[in-house]
Fold 50S ribosomal protein L35.
Amino acid sequence: MKKYKIKTHKSTVKRFKITGSGKVIRQKQQERNNSHLRSFKNRKQKSIRKDKLVISSKGNIRKIKKLIVS
């Protein structure tokens, strides 16, 4: 009997990253929409929103890893 391979969930791969120690990291929602009307924002507003990462909640880590690694 054939075993079926589980495909990776591509949108999850784009949104989350697994660090070397196994933590799951994502960007805050504000930063994902950072490019919206960027030309009208000043330098301070843009720099505040840049490169902020958040560790995902413990309850979702197992589910996210399953979707990414499969």
